[in-house]
Amino acid sequence: KRPAGAPSPGLAREVTKVGIVGAGLMAGQIALLFARRMEVPVVLTDLDQARVDKGVAYVHQEIEKLANKGRLNPGKAAKLRGLVTGDVDKAGFADADLVIEAVFENLDVKKQVWAEVEKIVSPECVLATNTSSLSVTAMAEHLEHPERVVGFHFFNPVSVMPLLEIVRAAKTDDATLATAFAVGKQLRKSCVLVKDAPSFVVNRLLTRFLGEILGAIDAGTPLDVANQALDPLGLPMRPLALLTMVGPAVALHVGETLHEAFPDRFGVSENLGRIVEAGKPLTDRDGAIDPEVAALLKIGDTA
Ligand code: 3HC
């Protein structure tokens, strides 16, 4: 069944090569997904060669891990490793059909990235942003071909989370949207079409959820109590572990975007800023709290 709002799949363009701007963790996870599910060449790029090499090495290591777990046979693993390459020079994007950006969450940086990419790619190449909360329409407004810009919002961990939010910007055309849905299907994601509204859908809920936990901490609820109090809801992860996995800096950015858009509905906890400043994980994967980071937090008085 065609997802709600998706154009005719017949309009989709074939994607035979993918470029990714950014070689950080999210970009690496996305590169791995494309190589694994679509078996197309994926070229990573970043500000300097060291970052590019680190990103490519991460993807190659993840492929190795899958092979060691018996999830990929050695031949397939070698093929996938060969598909993922990187270069600081974006010239390799010239024959890409899709370029995804997963860079720092800053509108001006993203606009600059697209302006540079547009000089290299063909006018039909789809430009997809993995922004967590920024306006896709604003990102595309100065481009020569804004109709090929779309939002492609993945969730952490990218290989496991089934959902993909596809964002239609003001000028996105049907061929671009159809291509986004076709690619999402090939990646085996459940695609939902969302409005280009601040933080789309999932991050609004997540920000409200984590914001209430942080609010309880600000008010004096001990960290470990706040972290366990949701257990009856049967969530797969403790809230502060989820905050750590998403990345406090990303959560802060999403929170600030929502606060700006809806000041009456979204506040920003100062403790979130302190967690970001700490620069190290607040919890481990199981939710155990790091005492040094915890000591930096200002817990209010419940009295
Ligand atoms: N990075 C990459 N892969 C990870 C991972 C991580 N941090 N944590 C777990 N995984 C993978 C494992 O490798 C495993 O993969 P496999 O099935 O292919 O072997 C799979 O996830 C399941 O792992 P486990 O069996 O060890 O662990 P769990 O059953 O405890 O599940 C979880 C782990 C899937 C992370 C689960 O706890 C979960 O669903 N948590 C909620 C995650 C969530 O809500 N994500 C959305 C965040 S919002 C977001 O990302 C948007 C952004 O804009 C902020």
UniProtKB/TrEMBL annotation:
Q: Which residues form the 3-hydroxyacyl-CoA dehydrogenase C-terminal domain?
A: 200-280
- Tell whether Lyase is among the UniProt keywords: yes
Superkingdom assignment: Bacteria
Cite the 3-hydroxyacyl-CoA dehydrogenase NAD binding domain residue spans from the record: 17-196
Q: Which UniProt keywords apply?
A: Fatty acid metabolism, Lipid degradation, Lipid metabolism, Lyase, Multifunctional enzyme, NAD, Oxidoreductase
> Which protein family is it in?
Belongs to the 3-hydroxyacyl-CoA dehydrogenase family.
What Gene Ontology biological process does one annotation of this record name? fatty acid beta-oxidation
Query: Zinc-finger as a keyword?
Result: no
**Name listed for the protein in its UniProt record:** 3-hydroxyacyl-CoA dehydrogenase
Query: What organism is the protein native to?
Result: Rugosimonospora africana
Q: Annotated Gene Ontology MF terms? A: enoyl-CoA hydratase activity; long-chain (3S)-3-hydroxyacyl-CoA dehydrogenase (NAD+) activity; NAD+ binding
